[in-house]
Amino acid sequence: MVKKIRILSSEQAIIDQFLDAIWAERGLSQNTLAAYERDLRSFSAWLGEHTDRGILTACRADLQNYLAWRGRVNLSANSSARFLASVRRFYRYLLREKKIKEDPSLLVESPILRRQLPHALSEKQVEALLASPNIQTELGLRNRAMLELLYATGLRVSELVEIRLQALSLTQGVIRITGKGNKERLVPMGEVAMDWVQRYMQLARPVLMEANAVSDALFVTARGSAMTRQAFWYLIKKYAKQAGIQIKISPHTLRHAFATHLLNHGADLRVVQLLLGHSDLSTTQIYTHVAQARLQTLHKKHHPRG
Q1: How far apart are the C-alpha atoms of 169 and 50, rounded to whole Å?
Q2: Are 95 and 103 in contact (CB under 8 A)?
Q3: How many helices (H) and strands (E) does the chain have?
Q4: 251 or 295: which leads in pLDDT
Q5: Which residues, 6 or more positions from 126, have their beta carbon under 8 angstroms from its beta carbon?
Q6: Domains (ranges, CATH) in the chain?
Q7: What does the alpha-carbon distance between residue 141 and residue 205 come to, in Å, rounded to a whole number?
């Protein structure tokens, strides 16, 4: 059972004001807002337990001590870097609103991060994963369509489950996706994925919708409501195990495979950037390292002088 973090109501009120402000400013996703709130609530709770200060009166030493504490309890450098990004934005907001006079996060150094390459499935592993659902059932057909669409488009799982019927154009073969920062992009589906989506819509979705005829979500549950990110992530893990995939997978597994396999087959990096919805090309460039590593492995295995 997850321990509930308890903080003062006055501290929660300040955090809520900040979240409302940044939501109005940039239209961030609910997942990003939830991460900001978790980070700030955890820091507020730690201050209450270890100091006599609150989140408005915390100093640079408090932030440094909190980061050191996170290291001692084995929280990752990546999550601490995310916390620092959250708290820096929070204190910039407080400074702008004249709720504080100094920003305690200004001179705090970020944790040193190791650049980790995403786990990439081979094309054979992806085929095994896609073939895992039992397509003789409505739910299995839905799951196959979702997996095929995820691999064909490189969508984030949150983007996949949030697709609405009106965002889908089967005549043009594209989906209108609203990504991070409320940025819209058109993503091509590819013929195979489009065929599976059509089969699902013709044979499975009408049956699933008998329980709830008002949902406009493309992918629905047995109760006719929209799929959740958590429910679909559980399905991916189940099918990965079923397919005999031993490597550690994440919610981005098929997104990583999509990008890596495109680059392996000669796609331009900027095209992959557009398809993934990355605002910065450097974010996409990590996949060139994955693709290069894969090509080196294939060369070593198959070339006579490898």
Answers
A1: 55
A2: yes
A3: 13, 3
A4: 251
A5: 151, 254, 257, 261
A6: 9-96 (1.10.150.130), 123-302 (1.10.443.10)
A7: 9
| Cα gap 267→149, rounded to integer Å | 19
Q: Tell me the pLDDT tens digit for each residue of 94-114.
A: 999 999 999 998 888 776 555
CA distance 82 to 70: 12
Q: List the catalytic residues.
A: 156, 180, 252, 255, 278, 287
Largest CA distance in the chain: 69
Which tokens belong to 253?
């597994």
Q: What is the H or E stretch that residue 52 is in?
A: none
Question: Cβ(213)–Cβ(224) under 8 Å?
Answer: yes
- What pLDDT, in 10s, does the model give residues 136-170? 999 999 999 999 998 888 888 888 999 999 999 98
Q: Are the C-beta atoms of residues 64 and 58 closer than 8 Å to each other?
A: no
Do 81 and 111 meet the contact criterion of CB atoms below 8 Å apart? Answer: yes
Spatial distance between the Cα atoms of 215 and 226, rounded to a whole number of angstroms? 7
Q: How many CB atoms lie within 10 A of CB 210?
A: 9
Minimum mean pLDDT range among 145-154, 204-213, 220-229, 252-261: 252-261
Q: What is the torsion angle, in degrees rounded to the nearest 10, for the CA atoms of residue 264, residue 267, residue 270 and residue 274?
A: -100
- Residue 102 neighbours by CB distance under 10 Å: 11
Token pair belonging to 271: 């095209």
Q: Are 89 and 36 in contact (CB under 8 A)?
A: yes
Which pLDDT does position 116 carry in this prediction?
A: 56
Alpha carbon of 288 to those of 251, 268, 273: distances in Å? Answer: 20, 10, 11
